[in-house]
Amino acid sequence: PKSQCMYPEMGGAFGPQGGATFDYLVSFSCGQVQAKNFQWPHPQAGMKTETVKELSDVVRQLWPM
Hints:
single chain; alpha+beta; 3-stranded antiparallel sheet
């Protein structure tokens, strides 16, 4: 299990067009994902170190500083 802190640096939503969305928060600094209005399907909310790195790379490509 990863750290239990949650300092979200990014949020997102997905769902069918015109329908209800599924909202979530991502904390890169804590390696956590938090579902806001749906049941998280995994027993833990922590991300693997490699997942955090890969997702961080995607975010940098989408929103370069």
